[in-house]
């Protein structure tokens, strides 16, 4: 799933949400919010179908494979507290998601590409793993190179994201700091995570 290269507009329409934020995929969802294909409109999904669709939302939105999603589930399943909320918190703390939500990029695939190419540092150390888990106090900066600064500065100047309360972002120095742990009101994906947890626990 992390290497999905298919038509993103179809995924948005099939799942009924803005999963992929590319301009074309977003316009397609605005024009036609019904699922693609014939005889789909009005069809009622089974419980398994609904759980599978919600799971697909998480996988596509955060760029996870099936194995990685199940790994996250097993990491939180034995912990105290709401398993679904803890699962989404792990997803939100991924470096590629934080880079996107801070405003460095317009989409998560763009964030992953920049991370893999070594454009981002965490606490002064280059990190090339999009799944890197950030902690409160971690500081994200970009590689000190004029061309890379110009690239991300241009994105920030032309795109004003709504930075969540658990992040701070300086648009001049392009420095982001994780101030806390994202909670239930901070998740950027509208998903029924409880039925996903039930699905994964089988």
From TrEMBL:
Function: With S5 and S12 plays an important role in translational accuracy.
Domain of life: Bacteria
Cellular component aspect of the GO annotation: small ribosomal subunit
Assembly and interaction partners: Part of the 30S ribosomal subunit. Contacts protein S5. The interaction surface between S4 and S5 is involved in control of translational fidelity.
Keyword terms: Ribonucleoprotein, Ribosomal protein, RNA-binding, rRNA-binding
UniProt source species: Pirellula staleyi (strain ATCC 27377 / DSM 6068 / ICPB 4128)
Segments forming domain RNA-binding S4: 93-153
Domain (Small ribosomal subunit protein uS4 N-terminal): residue spans on this chain: 3-92
Name of the protein described by the UniProt record: Small ribosomal subunit protein uS4
Pfam families given in the database record: Ribosomal_S4, S4
């Amino acid at each position: 799933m992390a290497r999905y290269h298919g038509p993103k507009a179809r995924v948005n329409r099939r799942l009924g949400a803005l999963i992929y934020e590319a301009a074309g995929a977003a316009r397609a969802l605005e024009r036609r919010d019904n699922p693609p294909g014939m005889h789909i409109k009005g069809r009622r999904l089974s419980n398994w179908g609904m759980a599978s669709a919600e799971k697909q939302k998480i996988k596509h939105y955060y760029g996870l494979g099936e194995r990685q999603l199940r790994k996250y589930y097993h990491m939180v399943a034995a912990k105290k507290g709401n398993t679904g909320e803890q699962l989404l918190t792990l997803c939100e703390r991924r470096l590629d998601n934080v880079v996107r939500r801070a405003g460095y990029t317009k989409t998560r695939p763009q964030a992953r590409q920049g991370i893999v190419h070594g454009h981002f540092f965490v606490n002064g150390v280059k990190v090339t793993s999009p799944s890197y888990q950030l902690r409160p106090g971690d500081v994200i900066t970009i590689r000190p190179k004029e061309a890379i600064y110009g690239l991300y500065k241009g994105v920030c100047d032309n795109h004003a994201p709504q930075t969540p309360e658990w992040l701070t972002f300086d648009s001049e120095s392009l420095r982001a700091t994780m101030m806390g742990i994202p909670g239930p009101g901070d998740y950027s994906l509208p998903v029924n995570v409880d039925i996903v947890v039930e699905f994964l626990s089988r």
